UniProtKB/TrEMBL annotation:
Organism: Anaeromonas frigoriresistens
Positions of phosphoenolpyruvate binding: K22, N23
Keyword tags: Cell cycle, Cell division, Cell shape, Cell wall biogenesis/degradation, Cytoplasm, Peptidoglycan synthesis, Pyruvate, Transferase
Enzyme class: transferase
Record-linked SUPFAM superfamilies: EPT/RTPC-like (SSF55205)
Protein name: UDP-N-acetylglucosamine 1-carboxyvinyltransferase
Location relative to the cell: Cytoplasm
Catalytic activity: phosphoenolpyruvate + UDP-N-acetyl-alpha-D-glucosamine = UDP-N-acetyl-3-O-(1-carboxyvinyl)-alpha-D-glucosamine + phosphate
Primary location group: cytoplasm
Organism superkingdom: Bacteria
Pfam families (alphabetical): EPSP_synthase
EC number(s) on file: 2.5.1.7
Modified residues (2-(S-cysteinyl)pyruvic acid O-phosphothioketal): C117
Length: 419
C-alpha cells in the first residue's frame, strides 16, 4: 500500500495553483446524465473520486472521454442502464447523486444505498423525501433504493436541514419535472451555485441558487454546454493552513476569495496575514506565533466542516487553548486519536474538541481515517520532529490533486512510497 513520508519542512515559499472543486465536479458530472448532447467540462480535478464518477457514468451507458488531465467530454444521449451497483456505490458516497438525474431522464433508478462512513451515519432521508414530493414511488430493500415515476411533477419542498447532496439531487430531478418546484431551506454552498449555473447553461430554469430558497421551472429537454468547474475552496484552505503552520509565505492562485471568507476570517483571528495580490490570487503569510481561536463548523457561509481537521492541526501548535465544535457530522473526530499519537493535546467532549497547543509535536506512523483527516496529518507532519508516515492515503487521493507535487514545489519534504 502506498504511503506518504513527511518530514519537518522549512517555511513554505512559492506559488500553488488550486484545482477545480471535487464537490462541484462530482454533482456536475452526475448532471450530465440529464443532457441528450455533449457536455464539455474544464478544470475537472485529477482525483480518485472523479475516476469513480467516470466509472459510474460509463456503467449507465454514458460516453466519457478524458481529453487531457483536466478536461472531459461527456455524452449521455444513449444512457440505457438505471442501476448503480454496490461495487461502485461502495467506492464513493457521491455516486448517489445519479439518482435524481436518472429519475428525471429515464423515470427509473435502482441505486445501492450509501452506507455511513468514518465521519457519520450520513442518511439519505432528505433526498428521498424530495423525490417522493416530486411524485416518485420509492422502495428501499436489500440494500438498494428503487424509484420510479411516469413524470416528475413540481412541488413545494422544505428540507429539514440544508443538506448539500439532497439539495443537488432534488434540484437535478426538478429541473426536468413538469411545472414549478419551490425548494426551501436549501444548502447555499458555492458548489450549489456552480451546479445551478451548469444546469442553466444546459437550458434549465433555476433561480435563487446561493440563497435559502430556489425556484425551478421544469423543462422538457437539456442540451449541450461548456463549463469550467469553480476552484476548490477546501484545497485552498488546506494550503493556507500549510503556510500558516510552517510560518511560510505563499501565493495561492485560482482561489475564489468570496468562497473562503469564513476560513480567512478565522485564520486572520489566529494571526495569519493575507494580501489579495491579483484577481483570484492570495498571498498568505504565516506568523511566528499562532493564536488559539475557537471554531464552530456550520453550513455555508459558516466555517466548513471539511476544514475542521486542518484547523485542529493548526490549533495543536497554537499558543493557548481552543474549542472546536463540529455541528455537521456526528462522528468527525476520528483524526483526534492520530493527532494525539503525534503529541497533540486534545480532549473530546461530545461534539467539542478542546485543543491545547504544544510545541512538542513529533512524527509518528499514523493513518488517514478520512480525506480531511489525512490532510491534517500531513500538515502536522510538516512541523513535527522526525518522520511522519501517513498510511491509508487512498482517502487523501479522493480529494487532493497532486498533493505531494504541489507541496514539494513549495519546499515541503514529502514523498510517496510503495510499501
Ligand atoms: C460530495 C460532496 O459534496 N460532499 C460534501 C457534502 O456532503 P453531503 O452532501 O453528504 O453532506 P450533507 O450536507 O448532505 O450532510 C450534512 C448533514 O446532514 C445529514 N443528512 C444529509 C442528507 C440526508 O438525507 N439526511 C441527513 O440527515 C448528514 O448526515 C450530515 O449530518 O456536504 C458536506 C457538508 O458540507 C461536506 O462535508 C462534503 O464534503
Ligand atoms: C466529506 C467529504 O467528502 P464526501 O462527502 O465525498 O465524503 C470531504 O470532502 O471532506
Amino acid at each position: 500500500m502506498p504511503k506518504l513520508i513527511v518530514e519537518k519542512s522549512p517555511p513554505l515559499k512559492g506559488t500553488v495553483r488550486i484545482s477545480g472543486a471535487k464537490n462541484s465536479a462530482l454533482p456536475i458530472m452526475a448532471a450530465t446524465l440529464l443532457s441528450t448532447d455533449t457536455c464539455e467540462l474544464k478544470e475537472v480535478p485529477n482525483l480518485r473520486d472523479v475516476n469513480v464518477m467516470t466509472e459510474v457514468l460509463r456503467s449507465l451507458g454514458a460516453e466519457v472521454e478524458k481529453k487531457n488531465k483536466e478536461s472531459y467530454d461527456i455524452n449521455s444521449a444513449n444512457i440505457n442502464n438505471v442501476e448503480a451497483p454496490y461495487e461502485l456505490m461502495n467506492k464513493m458516497r457521491a455516486s448517489f447523486l445519479v439518482m435524481g438525474p436518472l429519475l428525471a431522464r429515464l423515470g427509473k433508478a435502482r441505486i445501492s444505498m450509501p452506507g455511513g462512513c468514518a465521519i457519520g451515519t450520513r442518511p439519505i432521508d432528505l433526498h428521498l423525501k424530495g423525490f417522493k414530493a416530486l411524485g416518485a414511488e420509492i422502495e428501499v430493500g436489500h440494500g438498494y433504493v428503487e424509484a420510479k415515476v411516469d413524470q416528475l411533477k413540481g412541488n413545494r419542498i422544505y428540507l429539514d436541514f440544508p443538506s448539500v447532496g439532497a439539495t443537488e439531487n432534488i434540484m437535478m430531478a426538478a429541473s426536468m419535472a413538469e411545472g414549478e418546484t419551490i425548494l426551501e431551506n436549501v444548502a447555499q454552498e458555492p458548489e450549489i451555485v456552480d451546479l445551478a449555473n451548469f444546469l442553466n447553461k444546459m437550458g434549465a430554469d433555476i433561480k435563487g441558487a446561493g440563497t435559502n430558497t430556489m425556484r425551478i421551472n421544469g423543462v422538457e429537454k437539456l442540451s449541450s454546454c461548456e463549463h469550467t468547474i469553480i476552484p476548490d475552496r477546501i484545497e485552498a484552505g488546506t494550503y493556507m493552513t500549510a503556510a500558516a503552520m510552517t510560518g511560510g509565505d505563499i501565493t495561492i492562485e485560482n482561489v475564489e476569495i468570496d468562497h473562503v471568507k469564513s476560513i480567512i476570517s478565522k485564520l486572520k483571528e489566529a494571526g495569519i496575514k493575507f494580501e489579495e495580490v491579483a484577481n483570484n490570487s492570495l498571498r498568505v503569510i504565516g506568523p511566528e506565533v499562532i493564536k488559539a481561536v475557537d471554531v464552530k463548523t456550520l453550513p455555508y457561509p459558516g466555517f466548513p466542516t471539511d476544514m475542521q481537521s486542518q484547523v485542529m492541526a493548526l490549533m495543536s501548535m497554537a499558543e493557548g487553548t481552543s474549542v472546536i465544535i463540529e455541528t455537521i457530522f456526528e462522528n468527525r473526530f476520528m483524526h483526534v486519536n492520530e493527532l494525539r499519537r503525534m503529541g497533540a493535546d486534545i480532549k473530546i467532549d461530545g461534539r467539542s474538541a478542546i485543543v491545547t497547543g504544544t510545541n512538542n509535536l513529533m512524527g509518528a506512523p499514523v493513518k488517514a481515517t478520512d480525506l480531511r483527516a489525512g490532510a491534517a496529518l500531513i500538515l502536522t507532519g510538516l512541523i513535527s520532529d522526525d518522520i511522519t508516515e501517513v498510511n491509508q492515503i487512498h482517502h487523501i487521493d479522493r480529494g487532493y490533486s497532486d498533493i505531494e507535487e504541489k507541496l514539494t514545489k513549495l519546499g515541503a519534504k514529502i514523498r510517496r512510497v510503495e510499501d
